[in-house]
Amino acid sequence: MKFIVATHNQGKLREFRRILTPLGVEVETAELTEPEETGTTFAENAYIKAKAALDETGLPAIGDDSGLCVDALNGEPGVYSARYAEVGKRRLKVLGKLEGLPEEARGAHFTCSICCVFPNGDTITAEGMTFGHIAHESRGENGFGYDPIFISDEGAAKGKSFAEATGEEKDSVSHRGRALRSFAEKLESYLKAKE
Ligand code: IMP
Hints:
The protein is α/β, with parallel strands linked by helices and 195 residues long. It has a single domain, classed as Maf protein (Alpha-Beta Complex). It contains 5 helices and 6 strands. It has helices spanning 10-20, 42-57, 90-97, 167-173, 175-194, and strands at 2-5, 26-28, 61-70, 107-117, 123-134, 150-152. The chain has a 6-stranded mixed sheet. α1 links the parallel β1 and β2 (26-28). The longest helix is centred in the C-terminal third of the chain and has 20 residues, at 175-194. The structure holds inosinic acid. Inosinic acid (IMP) binds next to β3.
């Protein structure tokens, strides 16, 4: 079964392919109209994206809504991560707001909500989180979005920014890696139950 991934974000798409293809889940993109993200939670927005893609293509679709939540900013930018400032200024805005704060006060996590919607109305949802802290300046060239300012506290990526980590290191601990692996497990059970 093929799934449409409801995203225009090339960074996310790369990770979807990297994580789901080895698990036997085939993903494709389509020219999709971007729906308005009117939800107040990651889960609501993931559903909105998936449902819009399903309605447009008629194919099972997967939506991802994700973002960076900074403890010292009461969880900002959170669901507004993609709209926190103009393109190119989002990381600087976070760094500026944390200026002068010591490492122990710079805690942060990424969250990722996945929602898959099938033409018959069934849905599969999954969530993943990953923990770390905000760097004092951007580090590394890989990844996308806030990756250069997020220093992982976990596993193979520990002590590296997500932009310094290899794709494999990031996926092994990332919010999206965790959410997509959980989704793939649930999908397997769902498909088995339908046999
Ligand atoms: P949305 O889910 O399309 O609304 O956008 C989420 C935004 O959060 C992205 O545009 C990125 O700025 C940020 N984000 C989500 N996941 C990651 C990640 O894995 N690395 C870096 N930034 C991320």
